[in-house]
Design brief:
Radius of gyration of chain A: 16 Å
Largest interface: A-B, 26 and 29 residues
Strand order of the largest sheet of chain A: 4-3-2-5-6-7
Order of helices and strands of chain A: EHEHEEEHEEEEH
Oligomer: heterodimer
Shape of chain B: globular
Strand content of chain A: 25-35%
Distance between the termini of chain B: 32 Å
Strand order of the largest sheet of chain B: 1-4-5-6
Structural class of chain A: alpha/beta
Shape of chain A: globular
Number of strands of chain A: 9
Helix content of chain B: 25-40%
Number of helices of chain A: 4
Distance between the termini of chain A: 18 Å
Helix content of chain A: 10-25%
Order of helices and strands of chain B: HHEEEEEHEHHH
Largest sheet of chain A: 6 strands, mixed
Strand content of chain B: 15-25%
Chain lengths: 181, 136
């Protein structure tokens, strides 16, 4: 069972849902009259995006991208690539980029630079978790942030280890024995 | 998106860099992957001088990220051995308050490896195995 691999609950299901309602209310107010286009990166953002959009009370649209991740084979492949691009153009639209977690900022920085070259009317970020302690890229336009994340390996609520634990309804610290073995 | 071909100037330049430690080379690969421009050990900062003005102590951060104007130092020493490095970093920040520098400790770098699914390579990059590897 996934729960037995998690040594500590960082953010409970109730805490997460309460914070998402706050974020949704703020986004609804700030984007009133602008029909924001929410964009998220598969797959980690799925639970957050699904819950977030249902708390936003103004008209919106949404889309997803998928990108390659750095890993053992990526070293020979060169650079990050869009495995799935946006389905619609974003020129002139108000883009709210939704993230599950911002860590070093390397991935987000690359994505934002790519989206910026497509001339959106505005581009901001909403992240559920923000691990500022490991940030390498500053000045990211994070307008909405759910929780500050400590320097721990966390899973749950979309966050995975080797594609597992995404369905855990809270965010918790993964037992190091799982990933250090 | 452009890929770097083996014969490109960027790839050739990379081949000529002699990293002091495998963890530094791995970190450079991560930066390349996310198209972050970097320089390896581009600048040495004097930290102490003798009475005649000769530099007696200096610090050379591992990486400089140009677009972020940020220096990054990676240390794979165990926590109990980083006191001297911490002292150097403190002195650097005192003398050069406009310099932005981030220190990745062994634990931080280990977590970065875990994040990228490279936990199995910890030994070769930050463990005892890495210390035995003939590098640079």
């Amino acid at each position: 069972m996934p729960d037995s691999d998690i040594v500590e609950v960082l953010f409970s299901e109730g805490q997460i849902q309460a914070r998402i309602r706050e974020l949704g209310a703020a986004i609804s107010e700030d984007y009133a009259g602008r029909t924001p286009h929410l964009v998220g990166v598969l797959r980690g953002v799925v639970p957050f995006m699904a819950d977030l959009v249902r708390t936003i009370t103004i008209p919106l649209t949404l889309d997803f991208i998928a990108i390659s991740r750095y890993g053992p084979s990526a070293r020979t492949r060169g650079v990050v690539r869009f495995m799935k691009d946006l389905d619609e153009p974003i020129a002139g639209r108000h883009i709210l980029f939704v993230e599950d977690v911002v860590d070093t900022g390397l991935t987000l920085n690359y994505i934002l630079h790519t989206l910026q070259r497509r001339y959106p009317a505005s581009l901001q970020v909403c992240t559920l978790l923000d691990r500022t302690i490991r940030r390498l890229v500053n000045d990211l336009p994070i307008a909405y942030s759910g929780f500050d994340l400590p320097d721990q390996f966390v899973v749950g609520y979309g966050l995975d280890y080797r594609q597992h634990y995404r369905n855990v309804p809270y965010v918790g610290i993964l037992d190091p024995r799982i990933y250090l073995d | 998106m452009q890929s770097v071909t083996p014969s490109s100037p960027e790839q050739q330049e990379r081949k000529e860099i002699r990293f002091a430690h495998p963890s530094e080379e791995e970190f450079s690969h991560i930066l390349d992957f996310y198209k972050i421009e970097w320089e390896y050990e581009p600048q040495t900062f004097p930290l102490a001088w003798d009475e005649e003005g000769n530099v007696t102590e200096a610090f050379t951060p591992d990486f400089y990220l140009r677009q972020q104007d940020l220096y990054v130092e990676i240390t794979t020493l165990r926590q109990e051995l980083v006191t001297k490095k911490n002292q150097k970093l403190r002195r650097l920040r005192e003398l050069y308050p406009d310099i932005d520098i981030k220190l990745f400790y062994r634990r931080d770098f280990g977590r970065l490896l875990d994040k990228y699914g490279l936990s199995g390579e910890r030994g070769g990059l930050i463990g005892q195995e890495a210390l035995r590897k003939p590098y640079a």
